[in-house]
Amino acid sequence: MKGKMDNHNDLEGELHKVDILESPIDLSVQKEYQGLSDSIEFDNVNYEEILSEADKLFVAGTPIEAKKRILILLAHLGTIESSKILEKYLRVSEESLKDWAVLSLKECRMFLESVFLKEEEGFISTGLGGQGNKLRYYFIVSTREGRTLTGAERKTLQEAFKGSSGENRSEIEEINYGTNYAMIGILVPMDVAVGEVIEGGISRCNRMGEVLLVEYFVTNVKKPTEDEILKYLRDIRRERREPEKVV
Asked: Which of 16, 103, 105, 131 has the most neighbouring CB atoms within 10 Å?
């Protein structure tokens, strides 16, 4: 297996129109939001009462849990009025509820647009978010011998992945170097396999010599920390049965 993927997208059913949630939101928040939403019996909700209680969002003394419920109910109302309320709240929301405000507004717009478009619509929300119709990923590539890339090799790597990204309508956002690896942030269209972009870049980079391992790590959950990167590098070299180098 060339690539190790950490991807928590779970899309059920066929979605005719998909919109990417651009703001990076922690998956634990997304799960809590979905869990509370699943616990509400929306058929038994009086939405007129919800609109009358919407002002509680802007009252500092309103309990956080009450605000979370109001946000979800306003989202499911899916009207222009509820959308405007959520937009207003997003601008002034507490830091602890900023992600909830983003999720509820996006869900409200999804319901609202589905009425106008007369088609089922959904949105993809990943830990790293995205932009337009592209999902954001971070991936790690490492040197074959566990050594530091030279200046010339870094330039080759940049050109290689820029070329592969261009061929696949993708966009490199950043490249960061460690002792014996490179971490690259990239935006990839939903209809393009991220592995094709990465493997194409590795292949280009290795044309003049076997610089990079063919194995890589890619995630759209969160930006890997230094400790997580080093653990991956130790694991991959252990799997290859190579002597472990001190990094």
From this structure: 103
Residue (of 116, 112, 115, 136) closest to 124 by Cα position: 136
Lowest mean pLDDT among 11-15, 33-37, 153-157, 167-171: 11-15
Q: Which residues contact 175 (CB under 8 A, 6 or more apart)?
A: 157, 158, 161, 182, 183, 184, 185
CATH class in words for 130-239: alpha beta
Give the three-state DSSP class for 14: coil
Q: Which residues of the chain does CATH 3.30.70.1290 include?
A: 130-239
Global confidence as pTM: 0.54
Alpha carbon 156 to its chain's center: 28
What are 52's two structure tokens?
């009358």
CA dihedral 124, 25, 78, 56 (to 10 degrees): 170
Mean pLDDT, rounded, of the chain:
81
Distance in angstroms (rounded) separating the CA atoms of residues 84 and 222: 30
Spatial separation of the C-alpha atoms in residues 77 and 62, rounded to whole Å: 21
**SS3 for 25?**
coil
Instruction: State mean pLDDT over 137-141.
Output: 92
Q: What is the pLDDT of residues 199-228, one digit of tens each?
A: 999 999 999 788 999 989 988 878 888 888
Task: Tell me the CA end-to-end span of the chain in Å, nearest whole number.
Answer: 24
